[in-house]
Specification:
287 residues; Rossmann fold; seven-stranded parallel sheet; two-stranded antiparallel sheet; 15% strand
Length: 287
């Protein structure tokens, strides 16, 4: 049961297990929860029944985002899209906040298995560090989405780069884990698709932006992932968290007033990301 007591829906009419999308990156502050929430609401708006799982027990950003959304809906008496959500504390319990116990692993596997039966897509938000539960989630993923900020500090979580010599020296520990999970996944249920999403992209061209773009292209070839544009640096994303809304809901929050050009651009960024993910989910469902 979700933290909001939502009832379980009927099994998926396709009769197959739902695809699992993992939002993963072993670094905090890259926009994982913001990306996860906007992806969840975008998918719901397109008719998908979504189950969401928050494995970041310490921060619980996605769980708090959804809780804020529930409070907003109840306070204003409005219907808003809310996924069937499972918080990390439901999985780990109060006595195992890091999720190291076999019991926590069993709970997570049980929740994922049930969510795959009862929903169309499962979205899992992971912590910004390595953990046993995060590794389980990566092993279950059909699609991995890794948000990164437009900086070499963030790219270091993907691979070690000598920017001066224009060389990729090797994969990071996180990428090595993903490659291992990808090999196991392919042997078990098919290939693991990997998207790296550029977040907080600046509006102005710069040497850093060009160098980051070069590095991502080099890493994408070495690690076999696709690069997608994400969300620009906008205050509105942080403000909407407080009321549990996304840029896709903004027409409700603004009382019907016309959206600013910045807000319209932000909404288009989200729609483009959701469309790219939906296109890939469609391929997964057909295989």
């Amino acid at each position: 049961m979700s933290i909001f007591g939502r009832k379980t829906v009927e099994p998926s009419p396709t009769g197959r297990g739902a695809p699992v999308i993992v939002i993963g990156n072993e670094k905090g502050g890259c926009g994982k929860s913001t990306t996860a929430m906007h992806l969840i609401i975008g998918l719901i708006d397109n008719g998908y029944r979504i189950a969401s799982i928050d494995l970041d027990v310490r921060q619980s950003s996605l769980s708090r985002y959804i809780a804020n959304r529930q409070v907003y809906a109840e306070a204003l008496g409005r219907e808003v899209a809310i996924p069937a959500h499972y918080s990390g504390i439901e999985i780990t319990g109060d006595d195992d906040l890091k999720g190291n116990s076999p019991r926590a692993a069993e709970r997570l596997q049980f929740i994922i298995d049930g969510a795959r039966v009862n929903h169309d897509i499962v979205v899992i938000d992971t912590p910004g560090s390595d953990s046993p539960l995060s590794r389980i989630a990566h092993g279950e993923a059909n699609l991995l989405v890794t948000p990164v900020n437009d900086s070499f500090v963030d790219l270091d979580v993907l691979g070690h780069i000598d920017a001066r010599k224009k060389q990729v020296l090797g994969p990071s520990h996180y990428s090595e884990m993903v490659l291992e999970k990808r090999q196991n996944q392919e042997n078990r249920t098919g290939p693991l698709d990997w998207f790296v999403v550029r977040n907080r992209i600046g509006n102005l061209d710069s040497h850093n932006a060009r160098d980051v773009e070069w590095a991502l292209q080099e890493l994408s070839g070495a690690l076999n992932f696709n690069v997608l544009p994400g969300f620009s640096e906008r205050v509105i994303f942080r403000e909407l968290f407080l009321v549990g809304l996304t840029i896709l809901d903004l027409k409700e929050a603004s009382g019907g007033k016309p959206l600013s050009p910045s807000h319209l651009a932000a909404r288009e960024e989200v729609r483009e990301l959701v469309s790219a993910i939906m296109a890939r989910v469609g391929v997964i469902e057909k295989t």
